[in-house]
Specification:
This protein folds into 2 domains: 162 residues, no CATH class; 170 residues, P-loop containing nucleotide triphosphate hydrolases (Rossmann fold, 3-Layer(aba) Sandwich). The protein has 14 helices and 5 strands. It has a 5-stranded parallel β-sheet, with helices on both faces. α11 links the parallel β2 and β3. About 2% of the residues have low confidence.
């Protein structure tokens, strides 16, 4: 499966730092860089202002140190409040303020904590850099160097993680904890189990009528996998049918450093059937298999489907459908073990 190489990372940095976003759009990596520059500035600018106030209005010794550590301490308290308040005191008003409502799936609090610590390091870098500009102090220089060294790994992790998310081509950004629709507890357990296991070849058939949140749920699941630095891809069924005819002589077109549907670790196939008032399948399992098993790339396609994990976003589940017309039968014909097929029906609540 594909991963983010150093060459791809450098190329993305070059694209984000050079050029104008007004005509090329804003990437997730660019937004992350801008966000961290904002954190640096929120440490830098208040430190400069506070230093000038302390120096002009007080007789305080070493105001550059008091300003830097005072501003940094203020941001530490703010981030602790921002992180711990919804975690420890999740009142209804706070949940509404977060925009998530009652958690159906718990947030990845460890990941959130790491993000908070990363922000605090950038706040500190800004405060210490401002202090050095105001008055040089050897200890502050050493402290700034230590923070720069500490931020190397978080920078690499978060920047590459944003690349994993943006290369998946999701239609929108959504963490699993932001999905707050109703779901049966046994289906919830199946989803968490699917997400927990990283071995390839796991398939989830996600059924639901229009408005059940099946597309949002599939993107949320895949996003959590992307954050674990897995190469995920989102694609609609119609587009995938066209890609079934790509082979070595007609290779897929991908962005530099990205991956195709065949070499992704998790694939989301959306809009297979609409559901809702459209009872009959527009794309049947039999039709899908016929196009999948075309003369030029049939074996290559079946191998790719069998060996990767896939979330199949379906319409309504009809238990009375003949076995040969069911999607479970299609997967078994390809060679997927029945134990590797999970079915989740969002209409069953």
């Amino acid at each position: 499966m594909k991963s983010i190489t150093v060459k791809a990372l450098v190329a993305q940095l070059k694209n984000d730092l050079i050029g104008k976003d007004s005509y090329r759009g804003v990437t997730l990596t660019y937004s992350w860089l801008a966000n961290q520059f904002g954190h640096f500035s929120l440490g830098f600018i208040p430190t400069i202002l506070l230093y000038n106030v302390l120096k002009a209005k007080t007789n305080m010794s070493q105001p550059e140190l008091w300003a830097a550590f005072g501003v940094w301490a203020g941001w530490i308290l703010f981030e602790l409040f921002n992180f711990l308040w919804p975690l420890l005191f999740k009142t209804e008003s706070i949940r509404k303020a977060l925009g998530t409502g009652k958690y159906t799936f718990q947030p990845a609090w460890t990941n959130v904590a790491f993000d908070t610590l990363t922000d605090l390091v950038y706040f500190g870098m800004g405060a210490l850099a401002a202090s050095l500009i105001c008055e040089f102090h050897k200890g502050m220089l050493i402290g700034l160097i230590v923070l720069v060294l500490l931020v190397i790994y978080p920078f690499y992790y978060w920047y590459t993680t944003k690349m994993f998310i943006q290369n998946a081509d999701y239609p929108f950004q959504l963490r699993l904890s932001q999905w707050n629709q109703r779901i049966k507890e046994d289906n919830k357990a199946l989803i968490l189990d699917f997400l927990k296991h990283n071995e390839p070849g796991k398939h989830m058939l996600l059924f639901g009528s229009r408005g059940s949140g099946k597309t949002m749920l599939s993107v949320g699941i895949a996003t959590e996998s992307s954050i674990k630095n897995n190469s995920c891809s989102y694609i609609t069924a119609v587009k995938l049918l066209c890609l079934f005819f790509e082979n070595e002589d007609n290779p897929p077109i991908t962005k530099p450093g990205a991956w195709s549907w065949r070499n992704s670790s998790l694939l989301v196939i959306d809009d297979i059937n609409p559901g809702g008032n459209v009872q009959d399948d527009i794309l049947s399992a039999k039709q899908f298999y016929t196009i999948l098993n075309n003369l030029n790339c049939g074996e290559l396609n079946k191998k790719a489907i069998k060996e990767k994990s896939i979330i199949w976003v379906m319409g309504n589940d009809d238990p009375d459908r003949h076995a040969e017309e069911r999607w479970e039968t299609l997967l078994e014909n390809i060679g997927v073990e029945k134990s590797n097929i999970t079915t989740v029906n969002l209409d069953a609540v």
